[in-house]
Amino acid sequence: MKSLSLLLLLVSFVFGLDITIKSDKVSNGRCFLLKSNEDGSKYVAFEGKRYYFFPTKNDHKHKFYVIVPVNYYTKPHSSKIVAVVMQDGKKLYKSFKVKITDGKYKSEKLRVAPSKAKFNKKQKQRIERETKEALKIYKTITPVCYWNEPFSYPMNSKITSQFGNKRIFNGTLKSYHSGTDFRAKVGTPIYATNRGKVVLVKNRYFAGNSVILDHGEGIYTCYYHMSRFKVKKGQMVNKGELLGLAGATGRVTGPHLHFSTRVAGVQVDPLQLLRLLNEI
Fold it and tell me: Is 97 strand, coil or helix?
């Protein structure tokens, strides 16, 4: 009986399923994209976690997609992604060998106010509360999709700092750059990259005046350091709708927009994610 079960499992892997992967190699902090034409596509398993398939939006050649994020702190190594499909009550599998490479991100030296580099007890408590609040939001995967057209940038401006750069504040390595910075004078309009629900409008210690949009299916976009808000929590916004005005609130060296993204709770390169989303 055990031999028969093993044989059936091997057969499930051998017969080809119509599932493809865009690239079998990505760097830390970026994402894999898989597409499927198989009815019954459920999820992919990657390093102990499951990421679920959703219907594609504008890709008429494929039925389903799944985005698999790679944490920034992941070290270079070889791994495996296994797609799982349910058909006629049986699980079918397709496995992909993948590689996570070193993003080779640059280092940046920044000078900020001493209170933004070293924290007292009260400040640490505030930072902890805000971190927990944000993580609770990001771990929520809304089962509906709010968008059905390509994503755009939040503003048309020069990018001054890329995702992933190692941040050295006042001479001490503190973190990595968790988003993409756009040059923006105070008062510059900031627009929604796509349709979504406003799930946070708040002043925070590091991010300053912040707006977070839930686009559904585990996709979040974040807009930081604003001078003024133009939306309220719970509001539905359309692509290109005004969210707020750029500013210099929070931990900054000057006015700009910090734009970041999350997939299934994982912080990833915003520009790469938007490119992938615009292919589904």
Answer: strand
Alpha helices in the chain (DSSP H): 2-14, 121-138, 270-277
Strand partners, 180: 259
Backbone torsion region of residue 215, taken as left when φ is above 0, otherwise alpha when ψ lies between -120 and 50, otherwise beta: alpha
Largest CA distance in the chain: 70
Of the given ranges (8-17, 127-136, 139-148, 179-188), which has the lowest mean pLDDT?
A: 8-17
- For the structural domain made of 2-101, what CATH number should be given? 2.60.40.10
Q: List, as own/partner pairs, every contact residues 134-139 make where C-beta atoms lie below 8 angstroms and the sequence separation is at least 24, other chains included.
A: 134/200, 134/212, 135/265, 137/199, 137/200, 137/212, 137/214, 137/220, 138/220, 138/262, 138/265, 139/265
d(CA 65, CA 219): 13
For residue range 110-158, list pLDDT tens digits in order: 565 665 557 789 999 999 999 999 999 999 999 999 999 999 999 999 9
Q: Where in the chain is the domain with CATH 2.70.70.10?
A: 107-277
CA-angle at 248, arms to 205 and 243, nearest 5°: 90
**CATH class belonging to 107-277:** mainly beta
